[in-house]
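Table S7 (text form). Paired inputs.
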Amino acid sequence: MKLHELIKVKAKLKKRLGRGLGSGKGKTGGRGTKGQKARGKIPASFIGGTLPLYKRLPLKRGKGNPKLALTTRPISLTHLQVFKGKTQIDMEQLLKEGIIEKKDLKSGVKITGGEIKLPLTVKLPVSKNAKSKIIAAGGTVE
C-alpha cells in the first residue's frame, strides 16, 4: 500500500477539548480566558443582562387559556330546516348533517334566532328568542 492509494476520509472527528496541554486545546479548551462564557453553561437565548426578547414581545391573551380560547358557535334556526319534523336535535345529529365540525364538539354550540316551521325537539343550549320560535312551531326544548 502506498500513500496515494489510501482511501480519503471526509468525516472530521469532533474536536476533543480540555485533554491536556499537549493536545493544543488544553487548559481553557478554546473558550478564551475568564468571563461568563468561559465558565458554566449559559442559555443561547441569554443577551447579557438585558430583558430577553421573549419577555419584550406582547402577550397573546386567550391562546393558552381555554376559557377565553373556546367560544360557543352560534347556529341559526334556519340551519335546522334540513331535519325532518319531530327529530331530536343534539350535537351528534348536527355533526352527521355537517352543520358543525368536530372542533365545535369541544367548545359547544348555541341555537340562536331565525325562522323555523318544523316541530323539533332540541337538546342544546337555546336563546330566549329561538326557544319561543321552536315552541310556536310545535317543538320542545330540553
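Next pair, protein 2 of 2.
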Amino acid sequence: MEDRSSFWVRYYREIVARKTPWLDYSNERVQAQTFGLCLEAAGPVIGRRCLDIGCGWGHFSLSLAALQAAEVTGIDAMEELVAELRKKHPHVRWTTGDVQDRTFRESLGAFDLVFLLEVLQYMPIRDTIHGLWESLAPGGRIVAMVPNRECPIIQGAVARFEGRYAPPSPAEIVAVLASLPEHAYWEYRGLRFQEDQRHLPYAVSPWTRSILWDAPPNRLLIVAEKAVEKAAERKKKEG
C-alpha cells in the first residue's frame, strides 16, 4: 500500500496540474476568509519571523511578506512547486522537508509565528505541534486551521481516504494545546458554513476552550502563544 506521505504528494500534484488556485479550499472566497482569520489570530506580522507549512502556491507566504514580516519561510512537499516559487519570488525562503524531523526543524531556525493552514489532517497532531513548539521563540504563536473530525461532511472525507486523512476532534485539540509547556495561553474557535454566503462563507464562533458544541463546526482555528517569562527564567537557570 502507498504510504501516507507519497499518497498526498501524488494527490496534490494532480490538483496543481489543473492550476486550481486555491488548492485546499472550496473556492477563492473560503481561502480569503481563512487567510484573514489566521492573520487576525496571529496578531502583528511586521518584523516577525514567519513559517508557513504546506505553502502550496505560496499565496499566504507572500501575504506575510507583503505585511513586512522580517523573514518568511514557506515549506511544501512538492519540489517542483517550490522550485517555481524560488524563481518567481526569491525574497521568500522556499524549501521542502519534513517538519516532523527534528534535524530539519532545527536547520530552519527559530520563528515568531508558525502557520499550519489545512495541513494537520495529514500529520500526527500531537507530535507535530509539540515539535514546532520547540522552534517557537518566547512570545511567539502557532496558528492552525484544520477540519473538525466530528463534522459529518469531514467524516465522509475520512472514510473516503481510508485512514490517510485524519483530522482531529475538539477534544484532541484541547488535550494537545493544554499539554504544551510554557504556554501563555491557547484557545480555538469553530467555523461553520453559512446558509447565506453572499457576504462571507463562514460563520465564526467566539474563542473557547470547551469541547462541547451545539452543532459540530466544519473547521477549527487554533492559536497558542508561548510564554516569555517562563522561557526567560529557564534560560537564566541553564546559563
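The CA atoms of residues 149 and 157 lie 9 Å apart.
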